[in-house]
Structures are given as structure tokens and as C-alpha cells.
Write a structure and sequence with these properties.
By secondary structure, this protein is α/β, with parallel strands linked by helices. The chain has one domain: Aldolase class I (TIM Barrel), CATH 3.20.20. Helix content is 35%, strand content 18%. The protein is built from eight helices and 14 strands. The protein has an eight-stranded parallel β-barrel, surrounded by eight helices. Strands 3-4 form a two-stranded antiparallel ribbon. Strand 7 and strand 8 form a beta hairpin. Helix 1 packs parallel to helix 7. The structure holds zinc ion (ZN). Zinc ion binds next to loops. Its cofactor is Zn(2+). This is 3-keto-5-aminohexanoate cleavage protein. Keywords: Metal-binding, Transferase, Zinc. Pfam families: BKACE (PF05853). One of its GO terms (molecular function) is metal ion binding.
Length: 284
Amino acid sequence: MTDAQNKPCIICVAITGSLPTKANNPAVPISIEEQLESTHEAFEAGASIVHAHVRNPDQTPTSDPDKFARLKEGLEKHCPGMIIQFSTGGRSGAGKARGGMLPLAPDMASLSVGSNNFPTRVYENPPDLIDWLAGEMRTYGVKPEVEAFDLSHIFQAVAMWRDGRIPDTPYIQFVMGVKNAMPVDKPAFDFYVETVRRLVPGGEWCAAGIGAGQLTVNEWSVAAGGHARTGLEDNVRLDRDTLAPSNAALVGRVVEICERNERPVATWQQARRMLGLREVAQAA
Ligand SMILES: [Zn+2]
């Protein structure tokens, strides 16, 4: 038996993102109502974290805190207990607008701790903005999920943990398969895992594969004892010829991988405990 076996696997569903549109896959939820319905299905299928962006009616991304507030309210009502994670990613706004929803105090928010290239531009995360976002997360009790698009981002997260800018054990997500950034590469993945185990002993970590690499990265992560992210934000297909019918279908695929690897799927209660998040009262 490996130490990965029997350890609950936390499944995060990234429901919308800032790029895919209904032209890519009609199942991409755009309105708040669609987002709530899609998240509810994914929650029932086994996801315990929802990673969310919000969109304008014309499908373009926005950082509008009012939309995030409506989404949070709906999620708390329809998916009680589920961990709510908002994106502070850079496609939906610039500078401090990216953190405008943090006063809503979601359970978690994504935090990029360094810059890298995206397919058509620089993903710009200057040190002062990173520190401001991390400070807002401390102020409002939001746990960051560090998005590691590069090996240096893992080291930066650890530095921020050691000097208190990230107050608790960092939860680091490896992101692989973004064009012009880190590809889906097994030796690099293994080195990421080894580095987190060395620098954050006992820390939880997860991984996301973008596009066709999603399933591959899910397999690697579950087998290595990490947690898994899926969802239409990262990938709109089941395979080369088939569009994913829903976020729940992508979650179901990770559930199957967990079964094959003898890992139970984490309930939201287990996920909250493993990530050190506040307990919430169970719905009656
Ligand atoms: Zn995102």
C-alpha cells in the first residue's frame, strides 16, 4: 500500500473560467443561474471546492464584486458546505480590481505569486500586487490557493509562508499545459511533488491540467496522493471528438480515477478539515 491509498481526494471544479464561451461548449455556465445549476450538479457528483469566475451577459469576464456576491449567496443556499473559491486571476481585470471580491470573505481565493507567459500575453503578477492580494486575504480570512504556473512559484509560496504573508500551510496547485508556460510533463510534475514534500512537509497540494492534458494530470495527481481539479474552465472536452456535457461529467471522470486508485472522494467536511478551513453548520 502506498501512502496515497485511503487518503480522501479533494475534487475542485472550475466551472466557468474567463475564456471558454458557449461557442466552445454550450455547457459552459455563464449567468449566475447557470453557474448555480452547474455547480450543484458537480457538488452532487463529488466536487467539494468550486473555483469560480464571473461573466458579463455578453460572456466577457468581469471582476464585478456584486456578481460574486450574488454567486456566493446562491452557492451557500444551493450547495451548503461546499468550499467557495473565487479567482483573483488576471484575465478579468487589472491591478487591485482583481481582488475587489475578497471583502466578501469566500473560503478561498486563487493567488498567483509570480509572472509567466500565457498563450497571447504576459500574465503579469508584480510583487506589490501579490503582496496586496495576500494582505487582503489575511484581512478577510480567505485561504489562498497558490497557482504554480512555474517551479519558482512554489518557492515563492514557501517564502511567503515563512515570513507570514501566507499565514497557514500553503495549499499549492500545479498548473500544467498552459501554452507558453509549463507543459504537461511527468518528470517536471514529479519534481514539483518532491519539492512541495520537501519544503512543506505534510502540506496538501493539487494539480490542474489544461486542455487535452486535464485527464493525464488528474491521473498523476490522484496516484501521487494529491488533490485534483477539473471543470470546463480548463477543458471543454471528454476526448478529441466529444464535448463534455457538463461540469459534473468531468467530476465523474475524476471520481472514477479515485476509485481505480483506491482513494475515497473527500466530502466537503473532510475537505474543510484537510485544508484548515472553518467548519460550517450542516444543512438541516
Ligand atoms: Zn480560474
